[in-house]
Design a protein that fits this description.
By secondary structure, the protein is of the alpha+beta class. The chain is built from 24 helices and 24 strands. The strands form seven sheets. The chain has a five-stranded mixed β-sheet with strand order 2-11-10-3-9. The protein has a five-stranded antiparallel β-sheet with strand order 14-13-12-15-16. Helix 1 packs antiparallel against helix 2 and helix 12 packs across helix 13. The chain binds 2-(butylsulfanyl)adenosine.
Amino acid sequence: MPAAKAPDMFALAGAKARHAELAKEIARHDAAYYQQDAPVISDAEYDALRRELLALEAEHPELKNKASPSQKVGAAPVSAFGKVKHRVPMLSLDNAFGKEDFSEFTAQIRRFLNLSNDAIIEFFCEPKIDGLSFSARYEHGVLVQAATRGDGEIGEDITANFRTIKDVPERLEGSGWPDVMEVRGEVYIRKADFLKLNEQHAARGEKIFANPRNAAAGSLRQLDPAVTASRPLRAFFYALGYTTAHDLKTQLEMLQQFPEWGFPVDLSHDHRCLSDEEVMEFYDEMLRKRSSLDYEIDGLVVKVNSFEWQRRLGSSARAPRWAIAFKFPAEQVYTLLKNITIQVGRTGTLTPVAELEPVNVGGVMVARATLHNEDEIVRKDVRVGDRVMVQRAGDVIPQIVGVDVSQRPAGAAAYVFPDHCPECGSEAVREEGEVARRCTGGLVCPAQAVERIRHFVSRDALDIEGLGAKQVQFFWDEGLVRTPVDIFTLEERDRKLFDMVGTLPLSRREGWGSLSAQKLFAAIAARREVPLSRFIYALGIRHIGEVTARQLARHYGTGDAWLVAMQQLAGEKEASPAYAELVGLDGIADTVAMALVEFFHEAHNREVVDGLLQHVTLLPEEAIAGGGKLAGQTLVFTGTLASMSRAEAKAVAERLGAKVASSVSSSTTMLVAGEDAGSKAKKAAELGVKVINEAEWLEMAG
Ligand code: IVH
């Protein structure tokens, strides 16, 4: 290392002192602005401080450290609610939309547990309450914390609001509860209370809620607990999350115990069933009773009754294997189809949208519905002017079920699907085997580009606060943001405009003001470090949703490892070792691997990724569940195991922190060989991979 020259050292010492002074000063003003809503200096004075700080950092980059105000969003994150990490994730449920789906669910349980067709599976059925799920933590019988589900791993701290619900015990009654116990359930509003609440709101000219579920959600997420307390919220309890030792053995036993501790349950409609047929009968009975219940339900939740079986069945990434939401059919209503418009999505897909005479469907006002694609319109022969049947199923986008042809006005013409993109005029083509017609405009199509940017900044992607759909459109129209990379240079470019005569920087424009621009820049700066999984998801690659992005990120671990693999894909495509590795991963479909190849093969996509990496640091992904005793291992199973199915073995291995692959490669650390192990055992021997038998596996898993 060359020796530093003395005069530079002095300059640096002076700059360092001034930098520290400025940082302190700015932090003080940030707190006044962000936390106390009471700024003590003018915006211009504040801007001057920041500019001086940035100038010092430009001259002496070594001053730019993580603690510098240039690297942080205002003061502490301004989130109304704190965050709570669930010790046991709050999973979602898979859906069964009919008897066939339900039979498939039970067949899967039989396969997973190696049960014969005549072995009895004891089910417990509960109404699926249409509310908002929560997890409440009790320590030594006292409520200490309550959280929403959030993304399943991290929820919002709603303790103060939750305490105001009259069904919720502050202290438990009876005895025998675990020392620490997370109890889960649903917050909801009864139908009659919902109507009354809306009447009161209408009379006072306040917000009208669309349905009881929205009313419950809005009421629970109030900043002022007094407002929550004034709402008619109720709660049902139906599950346990993390607990210390207890001796409850079944779902039924738990629900019988809950009221003795003070937790309300609704056992009047709960039902133990010993066969698929019994579940179906109970389903039909509840469907008939649905409208006469006090509260809204949208189906049944059917659970395997035994906790021991629940534990063995475990869960996939999203949902437990021991429970399913057996959904009721959607509610349906007729209305007038006023027009058909076309929406262009992020990947160029042209989606026809039905513009409807607004109508109430199952308690929600619906004015637009999806028509899916060209073939659907032809198949249902939907024409503008028709009376169409609209259906809504849970949170799913409303759909058009069919047309009442007897009411069709004379002269209503069949709909002609456009063969050009309505946004950019490029040709819209339909490739063989595809249902969707796609705009070929690619980057020149503003609709696609705007949708991509919207996706990039959306909540589950980079989550840049202050960059909503409207702002993205605004920046696009102004020519300020044309690719995701532009977001990160926005502040710098704006600062340059500041010094130019005759050009109006963002922070001086009407409706923007220096402080809101400042807030946006701060929110952008806060995303200069992002977890790898969010970054992958944000790129908006076809077939890569959040779950897949997380799987990929966990597999590669670091941004560097991921990039090396993607470079290989871009060059050698399907012939690359990276491709073989990808398709060997469990849970990664070939379509995902192909989508990555296609994405990284395109030069302009690589340019965007490279551009982003000039501004964004990728944080390594946490290993699954922070390591179990098989953390870091990659296992492959082969042959038949006598004690458990392949699926159960895989789930056990993953629970212990291992990765499970389907074929043996140099990254395999252990092969578990059951009866009749074939070529994989041979390959493992060739590669020098450790091979263990079933007994050794059981000991390891036990
Ligand atoms: S059990 C591991 N039981 O349905 C899953 N959920 O679609 C535990 N829900 O997030 C959920 N009634 O908010 C369960 N009796 C019931 C339920 C119920 C409503 C909700 C819950 C869950 C959602 C999944």
